[in-house]
Amino acid sequence: MGYAGKNSTRISDSALSTLPMLFYLGLSIALMIADNRGGYGRIAREQLSLVTAPIWFVASSPVRLWRGGREELALRSQLQDENAAKTKALAIARARIQRLDAVSEENLRLRALLGGTRGYRLDVRLVGILDVDLDPFRQRLVLDGGSDDGVRIGQALIDSGGVLGQVIEVSRHRAIALLVTDPDHAVPVQVRRSGLRAVAYGTGSSDVLRLPNIPLSGDVRAGDVLVTSGIGGRFPAGFPVGVVSRVQADQMRLFVIGEARPAAHMERGNEALLIANLPPDADVGPPAPAGADAANRAASEALVAATLAAESGATPTLASARTANTAAKAGAAPAPASTRSATAAAKTAAAPAPATTQRATGPTKRVEQPATPATTPPAPTTATEPRP
Amino acid sequence: MTRGHSTALVLACYAIGILIEILPLPQVLVPFRPFVLAMFLVYWAVETPGLVGYGTAFALGLVADLCSASMLGEQAVRLVLVLWIVQRFRARLRFFPLWQQAVAVGMILFVDRLVVALVHLSFGLPQAPAVSLFAPLIAIALWPWLYVLIDLARLRARERN
Q1: ipTM > 0.90 (yes/no)
Q2: For residue A60, how many other CB atoms are within 10 A of its CB?
Q3: Does the beta-carbon distance from A2 to B123 stay under 8 Å?
Q4: Range with the lowest mean pLDDT among A201-205, A252-256, A268-272?
């Protein structure tokens, strides 16, 4: 150990103190390799999460104290201002939601025509964020909820701005999320204006995403909004990811490299939404038997109709009233004939083209033909499922 | 020579070191966070050499790795290497005046930054930003206060005994 005055020769002394050092050094390097190759660190953390959870709780307490204190000490006038601003924002958001409800209902109907509801049936859950710096140079968040609360690996995390990240580790009471700006993270995106697909990679800095390998002919320019494309199934489609800030050709002049600014508020709010796609029903494989398929659709339409009826009670739109009718019919008598008629009703409503109407209503009894709204676009394809 | 020690005090020091490691900071300040856990380890290794061995450093690093999301074994390597340097120069560190000791600790922590860079390079992890090389400077400024604080706590503990 190198005490002053210890009467051993210098060489053996240093050798004695170096050997255990080398042993532990080797041990930790072996651990690092094991963690890097086999991901054992994740497993160990899962097992020991009961021990680490209180430590994280203590470490995040200064921030909670600060926030709590600020809320306690806020002035009345500040609160009133904040309240007024929020009421205003809520009114605007409500108005937009009412418009979007009609569009989303119409979209669901059109998608049902195409044979799938991929990316539009969501399971949503609110989680708190524990402010803990797990690793300053990799961008992660600790979430205040774990497998006991229904959090699962792979769920996407969004905030009011857009996509924040996804869950990568889950223990019983805590979960760790990887942010979109982490260098290990990639999210399939789509340019909202042109529909061009790309992949947005994190860069490690919290305000830049990178879009490599866009073809030179790709239609993307600065200011374009990127939304999730839903490809790959991790992220539901349609959530904003970022705004393209710069586009330039790469060194070989073969591809275009884009840079984007993330849409989510990376500077850490209090809470975030965890969303997950519900398992797709009849999305892959050969078309399901017509009865089951129609029942699924009737169920999903009934869901939408119910939420619409609950939310837009004051001004029910034409579309929602129609769907409510259809859904009520399907719910009242779930016999094959009636579910078929429900699907047929949806089809006739969406596709006013005479040929489609004939084909869809062929084997069933006649259903009421509602006035076709002027905004309904012609059906993109005709019905393709085999009818019984 | 030694001023006595209480196990509770040692454990409290290490716990505080780990807490500071994961304490949330504004994004701007994160690279400047000093490696306080290593500073506590240096203190106890200099003052009570019989108590601090490589096993301690390794175990401490492992606990810190489990609490944070760094690679398992990364901080263990860093602490073992810090302890190794300290034990080489313990006799000299012990009798340095406080400011000189602070500079020596800063240099040890600078070497530690290089170790981090090397580890990240060899495992293909993203490198810390260059400003994190200033973290040892903050550690230098912090060291005298830390030293005096722990000394006072130890005196208090001895008086109680």
Answers
A1: no
A2: 20
A3: no
A4: A268-272
